[in-house]
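Worked example 3 (structure in, sequence out).
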């Protein structure tokens, strides 16, 4: 039985966005503490291959002094897209709102970058069309950092 307890998990993975090893901490809900299973509860800002809702195995790492990610045990079907604003005349919140209206959640960092969660239930073709529409005139640039199998066409 899952509870509402949240924990921080440290991830140390290669980021294709930053092109270097990256450390990021993420919030997760406890699924089964004895088995080391946790459900990610926020959107990764830089990390590849993970998305909100994924069930991960993490264990206490004495060197890091906290829970550390070891592997993904179950994929949520959600996707993570990273977006950077290329045009200074455009407001980050207005771009984020376009995707929020399509059912996607997003979290901003500064005024030029955000991470977006595309839920498994969303038709990614519509989101992709909007991303392409905004990237052609160089309003945004984007990376499909974690594209679930259900979102690949």
């Amino acid at each position: 039985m899952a509870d509402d307890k949240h924990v921080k998990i440290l991830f140390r993975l290669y980021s294709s966005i930053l092109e270097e090893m990256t450390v990021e901490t993420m919030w997760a809900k406890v699924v089964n503490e004895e088995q080391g299973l946790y459900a990610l509860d926020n959107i990764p800002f830089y990390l590849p291959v993970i998305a909100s809702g994924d069930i991960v195995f993490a264990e206490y790492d004495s060197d890091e002094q906290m829970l550390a990610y070891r592997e993904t045990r179950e994929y949520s079907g959600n996707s993570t897209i990273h977006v950077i604003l290329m045009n200074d005349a455009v407001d980050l919140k207005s771009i984020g709102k376009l995707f929020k209206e399509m059912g996607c959640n997003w979290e901003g960092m500064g005024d030029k970058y955000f991470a977006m969660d595309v839920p498994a239930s969303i038709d990614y073709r519509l989101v992709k069309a909007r991303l392409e529409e905004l990237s052609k005139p160089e309003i945004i640039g984007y990376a499909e950092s974690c594209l679930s199998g259900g979102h690949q066409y």
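Notes: The domain at 79-151 is CATH 3.30.70 (Alpha-Beta Plaits). The chain has two domains: 6-74, 79-151.
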